[in-house]
Every structure is written in C-alpha cells, then in structure tokens.
Amino acid sequence: MAGMARPAGLSMKLCSCAALLLLVVSCSLLPSALAEKRFYEFVVKETPVKRLCMTQHVITVNDMFPGPTIEVYNGDTLAIKAINHAQYNVTLHWHGLRQMRNGWADGPEFVTQCPIPPGGSYTYRFTIQNQEGTLWWHAHSSWLRATVHGALIIHPKPGVPYPYPKPHSEFPVILAEWWKRDPIAVLRQSRITGAPPNISDTFMINGQPGDFLPCSSQSDNDLHIMM
Ligand SMILES: [Cu+2]
C-alpha cells in the first residue's frame, strides 16, 4: 500500500517543477504578447507624377512617391498585401531585413518567388527578429524600384531604449534618381543596344529634385537639422 501513495517530497517537487514550467512558458510568451501583428495594403499602379516641369505616368505604391513609410517595432509580425494594378510584373523586397525562415517573403523575382503578374496579388508575411534601425523596401523586378520604394523604420521593442541618446525628432531621408523617360524604357533601350543605360536626369531627396532645378517646390526641400 505504501508503494501506491505518492511521497510528499515527490509531490512538492512536481509542484515546483510545474510552477517553473509555467514561469518559463509565461516568460517565453512575454515578447510575443508585446509584439504586434501589422497589416498593410500596397496597391502597385500607374500614377501621374510631375517633376522637372513634366508629368510622367510612373509606377507607385498607393499613388505615393516615394511610397508609404512602414513604421514598426522589433518583434512585430508584418503582412503586406501587394496588389498589382500595373502593366508590369512586380515583386517587393525588404532591403536589409533578415528573413529568418521566411525566404519566400524576401522578394527578388525568379529567385525566391515568381513575380506578381498584372491583376494578381501576393501577401508578404514575416516577423522582424532582433533588428532595429531604418531600412527600405523597393520593387525587385526590372527597374520599377526607381519609383516603387519607401522607408522601413524598425523601432526598438516598447520599453527598450535606443542604443544612443533619443533624438529630438526623426524623419526619413530617401535618396533616388529621376529620368525624364519611363525607366523601364531606359532599361529596354540599354538591352537592345548593349550600351549602358542612360544616366538619370536628376538625383532626388525625399522625391524632390532640389532648388537648382526647374519646377521644384521650395517648401518640400527645407530640412532644418539641429546638431
Ligand atoms: Cu534591395
């Protein structure tokens, strides 16, 4: 009979083990409980954009040039539904992001995925793991990246300080190039002739060519920086 009864010492050990297991489980749940799931819809489509006094129909995301800024926290899980209303195949790449077990969300066309055809859609799903800082996203098909790009800002997890004094304020600075021609046509001409592609007509900061070029918007070009 004595063999059937559970020794008191063993039951105390079982209790403490169970409590320890509960603590470990609750601790491991803590970071994911703080992390957010974030959903975005990126509509890739042709949009009229006026630069250098000329209106061009370029491919954008959500009619924005540069495209929308994604602002998230380390540990967040993202789902970005890309809907292709453009006349070209497209993929989106999350530049600099470590795709841990999410290789199919990385974006290079014909490398990790078939491109999204006109009229199609694809949802990129990935979790940001142990990364902080400002990256960028861009099209990874043909030269669509010329106008299909934007900032990807990853803040430290809530409650985790910056690895430097917190800045007074922050804003993305996005450098790009602008052609007076359709960039896809510039690339196509290069492939036909075998010559290097024509150089761009201007560089741009945050989608603007600057005060020295015609038809620039003065107010869009002022950046006041405190040191
Ligand atoms: Cu890239």
Automatic annotation (TrEMBL):
CDD domains: CuRO_1_LCC_plant. Residues 1-35 form the signal peptide. The keyword Transmembrane does not apply. Keywords: Signal. It holds the Pfam family Cu-oxidase_3. Residues 44-157 form the Plastocyanin-like domain. One of its GO terms (molecular function) is oxidoreductase activity. Belongs to the multicopper oxidase family. This is Plastocyanin-like domain-containing protein. It comes from Eleusine coracana subsp. coracana. The lineage of its organism: Eukaryota, Viridiplantae, Streptophyta, Embryophyta, Tracheophyta.
